[in-house]
């Protein structure tokens, strides 16, 4: 966890304090269930909640005990006993450490997923707002980085919206994957604990009982969880790279928000760097880095080995904290993104109207010109524009004017017909349809 | 694709012949839709189906044309025209190459997913059969590779069943992810094609229309697909490694099937290597290797760049063909796995009953012996067993006998009480519950 | 292996024919050594070379035998006997299959490394030529995609040269890593084979003896080899992405070579897509995908398990063939790259000279203007230029003219002093130094 | 960074304090060079060393300043000025932030490499000691997890020694890769700084000047560095897994050191878990996780983008700290590993001498028995042993006795000849040769 890429709410999920609080809840709920089954006194279960529920666990004290006992759960239980008193002997009856550890990890991942889903919701709201704002803000669409045909900036936002809407659904599924509880003993046979305890604890914590565990919850669940974070991170990267491209000096169709007084901009006003989205590109790599170790964690030996544990100490906090930060940062970028419609038009115009060459070609053939001749006519005018662009900053030759001046073209098409092919609305006629599909409105 | 790790049905999905057949279907369905919209003659659409539907496309001929045109879709259309005749000019009207290529890829991945799901179904059937067969075949459960408490071999199979049942659900979701169709033109605006064409083609091919495409179907879908294959491969690895462990010479609780006449076994009968499951371990790595490039493919530039294309030429066939092969091989291994209950008992007995030491400890304290004394009593008998094991092949000392001989133990527990703690049924009492959870029966 | 991304020489290394030829050489050299040690008759060793050396091994025949024997090396030896006759019984004496398989893999990887190093040499030659050609072709340097200060196109090529020169050294080291030979028997103890046989075979094949093998050559060597290919692939990606950026419509400072007659360019002359470098971006991902499985192959169980074998059947050919193709394609791209110095100047000029603002700022402070005032003066002129750019295609305001018109600026700096700060040569003064460092000339 | 997997010396390299101290040294050395070139007063350079050299930089104060300036290097320089006074204006003249940041990162990685190399040296010493100690401690060699032929425990250690000796060489090469210095300005042209400054700073810090940088040091160097760590981590994993296998209950040929009084062992003495090596297996995954992001960092845009920066904030400390910890832990494990020669013999004997079946087979054929008959004879005796093992804990039948009892066998071989084939020394005859190769003694 790198503090500068961490937000407090997600970080708190992974604090020692939170962990011990969840451990307490698991133990206390388990004791409730044991009391209901008559295994421990009901009074004891009550006492545990009363005294432990208000206790402020002391992380340093627990660490101190652990240095002696060499066992984290025992250290916690020893500390808990300092609050609860003699009834603490009824805590943890029949449980295995992993019952507590693994169920706690589920709770943490589930809470992390809750935050990530909320993050995506905020991002979706920003994307939707910007999409609608720029529904008909025309800009050039690019394939291979090369001008293709017009799109709108709103369509770009709609595309991102649809992508993150899918990411949301994936996160919901990922949350479902890891929201299970195991209180099943040393090898998962419930030899020393009644399965009804697991059912009770699961329900109390908003989890499902793991159908069959083996001291641990099977790690294919976690692999799926982290793989999903990797996909979401890749979508973050995609939008970040789009913005970085749009902010390039030569393109400059959009810019990360830059407050007027922000230092360093005064003498070199053009030097506004897309540092937030560059940063997001890197953070995406960091989140994705969790995927392979999570996949490697699946094949534990026999009923369990503990190789996954150290991996999860890193990737549990790192991947969720980093993705939470990245999503929030991306939301801020989208929300405040400076959009430059004038420059979008200017960029499109740089090629002097060449983006319409295909439509002219088609119009000529539909007007009865042979395919070969149509090509020749379009080509000779297009090449003039292109040559001019190719040797300077912007084309100084205008495709429309050239076409209007070309007698062979004019023999086939009227000025109105030619001008009509330069109509940008032609490209926008289905924008509403697409928006209806994406936003369902 | 490595022939020895490929099965014909999955391989066929990725053949040139299949690809061209799918291309034809996309084009023919699109022409149908265009005919219905009055853009092309209905008669032409009919002719295309009649003449193209029965045509045997010649891959070499298409390659030959492509060498001239340098464009695969144009090469195909040229070849198609050789069958269809003049009406072929109504094919591909308003479509972009990517409309055909990306939708074809969706169809291929969907079919691949269908096969993988069927593979998992076969594996689930084998696991269920073996689980029920060995529901109460006791073996030692191991944590950290060390004997812990008894489980059953059926429970191991049930665990794998539950895991692959989750994998099945993930594959169904992955199939849903990539089952979309895009017929939306050069930058996804439907500038030259009616969105209803896309809807028609999608329906005809069992796909959904992509809500917003940008010449290409967004690659987060494919990333999720391949990430899911990576998780399934990791589950394959887990079960493969379990079997490899069980087949180790010292363990030998199960063995990959070995036909009596199989070469090389005669003079060294012990040298039966778990080569199938070792192979599966490697194949899992191969399938997982597709995950990272698929994640890196998401962030295409602007409306599209073509960097994903070469990646998908490798991972599309490789990951699906390899996983299909791996699942089938694993099914065969499970189905015919030789299981040795006698050796399971023998292994458990190697430690002379030490696995029951915890229960004795508990019984002593419950009988009023102080925790400290109980420890001492258990320990002094346990250590005799352990020392004997530690210095030889198997323990020659029996924990039960030692306990029965120990007057201090006997002062607290009767012979019957002691023997009762060695009852394996104690550990099996919830097997039915777990089976009910997993198999829902 | 995807034929379209494969070149014949590298592909041949991985053919069955080559493999069997190498197997023969290993066996024949081993027999020579055994003959020298008096273990087998010298005459037999001679016969094997004579009859086997000219034999054309029949892959189909060997496959046929393997279907019966279920063992590839035995199948080959059986086929070899068909050429060699009775003396073939002296072949493979004391060897284990892995001795042949692993040593063969070393030979193949070494040859692959030879080709890759030659590929890099060709790329270096192209880079050096282009670097020198454009040593002083000025273009804007960009950090964060934003104009920074001038560089030259030759410097970009020099940077790539230095990077691939490092890659060359890495490939040489990687070749060294895997160039070892193991003829050490079932568990590497030379129980049934004299270590001198290994020494002889190693020398004959240009390999070193593996100091300690365990039936197999340790896989950390191969991991290092494939990790190195991953680094080289990433350098390919870097240069590919540089070219893609330079070819973007708005930038267009360089273009992949496009033959005048190349189809599709006529009507849309601007639609020249950087498909080769986009393809290289994807191929880099493919090569990198070999790294993780190669790392996972290291931890074989005990003296060996065979999990690495299937992995290597994929990544051995795939990673080397793909990287070979990528390096050759990149060399072609660099060699024939169309470079547009006029557009480089035009792009730099788009910001109306703003790239020199820092130098003016410094000159003002050196002329005694306070830091604060200097900022204010530069800023008010810079902002005019920027505003103009920000709202259109190119700046219509010129920074130099604005400065010359500004009385406060002129009070501190003469026209000559101001003009001097716009001198591009200022930025080129150490180009020779850098070239000397890189090209050592 | 996870405290429990971190050691102080490596952690200190990545502290804020260390970073600022290195920044200071870079700045002070650069100022020295500038003074020597007459750009700044020599007196000032002296003052900077005097006042800054003894200063205790206040991280909180720098953070406080950074919150205002939004720039880390400026914040540091501001703080430095608080110590140095007016002469601080001569610091950082002509430098770019990246000159400081990237060179600092080189220093940190170089120091990290120094520690890792020292770690490997300690590991090598432990391996060598254990190798020599157990040079002739016979144990069974296993391929595929199945008994093959005898090796010695010393050979296992020698193999690991050779592997880590290679790792050492790789780390030395990796250190060389990243030990470069860049003081070259905003786009690497030395426009505002003399190249001799870079040469001086490089020398003073034990680095080489980067031949051509572009504001940043090229990231292929760092990719190679982290890829190397990934390979070393995989070797750690290999040895860790070997030990985990040897400690399995059924095998128990070695055990991680367990202090007699260590808690939890008393009542369940067999439950000594190989938690250190399991942990190492996980840590290897963590270190390897740095490889892919490091490879993805290579392709920065144009002269630089800053996407690598966030990645390196994670993987710089995480990969080096974790690997340092892992190597040290592994050294401890090897150093104190409990080795059980008696159990090694017992395990080998479990198969009643079957490991010698191949030698008997060979002896029979050499004694003139036909290959077919020899097989039959060996097989009928071997199968008795195997059947007995297959149905119980250890074989109760002894291969040697059976052979001696078999009249057909005895017709071909004398008792002495048969017994001779059971001689373990046969397998050890080249142990010295291998040791000489590995340890060069």
UniProtKB/TrEMBL annotation, chains A, B, C, D:
<dbReference type="InterPro" id="IPR020557">
    <property type="entry name" value="Fumarate_lyase_CS"/>
</dbReference>
<dbReference type="GO" id="GO:0005829">
    <property type="term" value="C:cytosol"/>
</dbReference>
<comment type="similarity">
    <text>Belongs to the lyase 1 family. Adenylosuccinate lyase subfamily.</text>
</comment>
<dbReference type="InterPro" id="IPR004769">
    <property type="entry name" value="Pur_lyase"/>
</dbReference>
<dbReference type="GO" id="GO:0070626">
    <property type="term" value="F:(S)-2-(5-amino-1-(5-phospho-D-ribosyl)imidazole-4-carboxamido) succinate lyase (fumarate-forming) activity"/>
</dbReference>
<feature type="domain" description="Adenylosuccinate lyase C-terminal">
    <location>
        <begin position="352"/>
        <end position="439"/>
    </location>
</feature>
<dbReference type="InterPro" id="IPR022761">
    <property type="entry name" value="Fumarate_lyase_N"/>
</dbReference>
<keyword id="KW-0658">Purine biosynthesis</keyword>
<dbReference type="GO" id="GO:0006189">
    <property type="term" value="P:'de novo' IMP biosynthetic process"/>
</dbReference>
<comment type="pathway">
    <text>Purine metabolism; AMP biosynthesis via de novo pathway; AMP from IMP: step 2/2.</text>
</comment>
<feature type="coiled-coil region">
    <location>
        <begin position="117"/>
        <end position="177"/>
    </location>
</feature>
<dbReference type="InterPro" id="IPR019468">
    <property type="entry name" value="AdenyloSucc_lyase_C"/>
</dbReference>
<dbReference type="InterPro" id="IPR000362">
    <property type="entry name" value="Fumarate_lyase_fam"/>
</dbReference>
<dbReference type="GO" id="GO:0004018">
    <property type="term" value="F:N6-(1,2-dicarboxyethyl)AMP AMP-lyase (fumarate-forming) activity"/>
</dbReference>
<dbReference type="Pfam" id="PF00206">
    <property type="entry name" value="Lyase_1"/>
</dbReference>
<dbReference type="InterPro" id="IPR008948">
    <property type="entry name" value="L-Aspartase-like"/>
</dbReference>
<keyword id="KW-0175">Coiled coil</keyword>
<dbReference type="Pfam" id="PF10397">
    <property type="entry name" value="ADSL_C"/>
</dbReference>
<keyword id="KW-0456">Lyase</keyword>
<protein>
    <recommendedName>
        <fullName>Adenylosuccinate lyase</fullName>
        <ecNumber>4.3.2.2</ecNumber>
    </recommendedName>
</protein>
<dbReference type="GO" id="GO:0044208">
    <property type="term" value="P:'de novo' AMP biosynthetic process"/>
</dbReference>
<dbReference type="InterPro" id="IPR024083">
    <property type="entry name" value="Fumarase/histidase_N"/>
</dbReference>
<comment type="pathway">
    <text>Purine metabolism; IMP biosynthesis via de novo pathway; 5-amino-1-(5-phospho-D-ribosyl)imidazole-4-carboxamide from 5-amino-1-(5-phospho-D-ribosyl)imidazole-4-carboxylate: step 2/2.</text>
</comment>
């Amino acid at each position: 966890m790198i503090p500068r890429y961490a937000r407090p709410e997600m970080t708190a999920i992974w604090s020692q304090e939170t962990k011990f609080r969840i451990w307490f809840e698991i133990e206390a709920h388990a004791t409730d269930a044991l009391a209901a089954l008559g295994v421990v006194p009901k009074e004891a279960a009550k006492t545990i909640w009363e005294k432990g529920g208000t206790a402020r666990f002391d992380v340093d004290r627990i660490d101190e005990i652990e240095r002696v006992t060499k066992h984290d759960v025992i250290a916690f239980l020893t500390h808990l006993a300092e609050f609860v008193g003699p009834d603490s002997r009824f805590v943890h009856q029949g449980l295995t450490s992993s019952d507590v550890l693994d169920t706690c990890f589920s709770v943490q991942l589930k809470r992390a997923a809750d935050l990530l889903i909320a993050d995506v919701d905020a991002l979706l709201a920003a994307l939707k707002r910007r999409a609608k704002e720029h529904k008909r803000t025309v800009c050039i669409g690019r394939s291979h980085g090369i001008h293709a045909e017009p799109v709108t900036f709103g369509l770009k936002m709609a595309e991102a919206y649809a992508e993150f809407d899918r990411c949301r659904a994936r996160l919901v599924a990922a949350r479902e994957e890891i929201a299970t509880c195991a209180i099943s003993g040393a090898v998962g046979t419930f030899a020393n604990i009644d399965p009804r305890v697991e059912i009770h604890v699961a329900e109390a914590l908003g989890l499902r009982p793991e159908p069959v565990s083996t001291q641990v919850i099977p790690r294919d669940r976690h692999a799926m969880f982290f793989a999903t974070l990797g996909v979401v991170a890749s979508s973050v990267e995609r939008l970040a790279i789009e913005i970085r491209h749009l902010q390039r000096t030569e393109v400059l169709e959009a810019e990360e928000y830059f407050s007027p007084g922000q230092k360093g901009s005064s003498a070199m006003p053009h030097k506004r760097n897309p540092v937030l989205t560059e940063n997001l590109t890197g953070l995406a790599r960091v989140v994705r880095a969790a995927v392979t170790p999570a996949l490697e964690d699946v094949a534990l030996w026999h009923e369990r080995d503990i190789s996954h544990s150290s991996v999860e100490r890193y990737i549990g906090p790192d991947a969720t904290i980093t993705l939470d930060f990245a999503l929030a940062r991306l939301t801020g970028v989208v929300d405040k993104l400076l959009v430059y419609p004038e420059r979008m038009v200017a960029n499109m115009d740089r090629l002097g109207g060449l983006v319409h060459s295909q439509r002219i070609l088609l119009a000529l053939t539909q007007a009865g010109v042979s395919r070969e001749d149509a090509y020749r006519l379009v080509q000779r005018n297009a090449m003039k524009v292109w040559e001019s662009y190719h040797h300077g900053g912007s084309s100084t030759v205008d495709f429309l004017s050239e076409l209007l001046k070309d007698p062979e073209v004019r023999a086939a098409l009227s000025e109105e017909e030619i001008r009509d092919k330069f109509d940008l609305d032609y490209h926008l006629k289905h924008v509403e349809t697409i928006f209806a599909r994406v936003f369902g409105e």
